[in-house]
Write a structure and sequence with these properties.
heterodimer, A: 284 residues, mainly alpha, 0% strand, B: 284 residues, 14 helices, globular
Chain lengths: 284, 284
Amino acid sequence: MTNSVPFSLWWRRQILPGFGLSLGFTLVYLSLIVLIPLAALFIKASGIGFDGFVRTILSPRVLAAFQLSFSVSFYAALVNIFLGTILAWVLVRYRFPGRRFLDAIVDFPFALPTAVAGIALTAIYSPNGWVGGPVHALTGWKLTFTPLGIFLALIFIGFPFVVRTVQPVLADLNIEFEEAAASLGASRLQTILRIVIPELIPAALTGFTLAFARALGEYGSVVFISGNMPMKTEIVPLLIMMELDQFHYTEATVIAAVMLVVSLILLFLINGLQRWGKLKGEFV
Amino acid sequence: METVSPVPIRHPAIRDPWPVRAVLLIVAIVFAVLFLFIPLLAVFYEAFQKGIPAYLAALGKPASQSAIQLTLLVAAIAVPANLIFGVAASWAIAKFNFPGKTVLISLIDLPFAVSPVTSGLVFVLLFGARGWFGPLLSAWNIKIIFAVPGIVLATIFVTFPFVARELIPLLNSQGSDEEQAALSLGANGWQTFWRITLPKARWGILYGVILCNARAMGEFGAVSVVSGHIRGLTNTIPLHVEVLYNDYDYVGAFAVASLLTLLALFTLLIKALLTWRRAELEQS
């Protein structure tokens, strides 16, 4: 690491050419496409003043959207921890026909455009759909146009995050620790609880946070299934869209700025969790 | 995100009891059927519900054709732009040490943390009629928002990190010994880059480009904010899916959506082939 070397010295010590050109281009492009537009959002939001900010955020419709988005995203990410870890476990530890195919198709929600996911999920979970039909007949529940539908869509787009963060950790886990525990008389359950699970916690939490962050901002796969009723099934990204459609730019900007701050905090958290996971990995 | 072969479990003491294995496998498979296979099947079932002629007719309509053309145009601008950025950023970051490198890497990932709706909104704030540059643009008679340039900008923003993310770790792991050898043998900077670095990184570049392209063609939320939904002019494929769906033209919506689904499956296939190839290279 040359980080401690004075600037003028390491600049001259570069062997390969093109440092100035590539870094210069990177910084200019990054600033033009990402940094200046995001800064514009904060500058515009701060222009409204404290009173206007509070009035916008504390309006009942905005509060209802925030409550819905945060609670449904949280529950979906929570369920995804379990589903994702089970899928990762099955993919790494068991042999069964179609394992490689299942492994490849886990990324389907990442690859499928959100609008397509939205209409496909709505079609199958609606009361006359392939899955929604039997569920409606048996329990009377309606899955579409309810928070339950939003929850299902967020499970769909979130679970690959948990699978893909837990899977490599599980594959690198040293099997000898489990053998040692077993030979010392631990039951399989004790081994899982005391040896395996603690190793998976940083990765599972990273996957949870990634899925939660994605769910909070998700738009395409939710708008079709949610029905978009204000106060009932209106998520925050949709509310921003509604405000924009009515030319309420300040309101839209303030709500988006709050969501962006939340995303940045989550991003920070994810970085911390990944560092923790790496540290933990080094001792295994 | 790599495919991993199952860990060989030799000893029964560290093997899960068979009821546990059966339950976990069933949970994994039922979940995969409900959330992966049924949505996938539903797209094609709905698209072909009225037969192949209706499917082809839906795709052949002028509005569908112009949506396809616009999507191809947008991807043809956004993907090369982010490819050039990705190559420049990974050259600067992987081949040189400089202060602030970790911050730069985090900033490159930033667009992934931003909600699609917010990604579109920032460009409305900059270039919209009431945005920072709005008066200037209208004086010069340039339209960015509710026009193709806005769609391109929003797409570049949301697909910004894909190529860089693939290439930074790849170039980092390859080191720069071969580049230094080429330079010491008299090659100039560009020759070294074109003949040494680029060929070594070609699979990583291909993978990054394919992921970037899939998202560029499928982006919905960000593009929806800036497009204005002008049929035949500013509707991309995902936006056209929404328009048809809201018009209750389900065959049309799913027919157009099936194109994006095929693109997603193609992306997954390439990804699986590349990871299997990488795994084979590591074994040999």
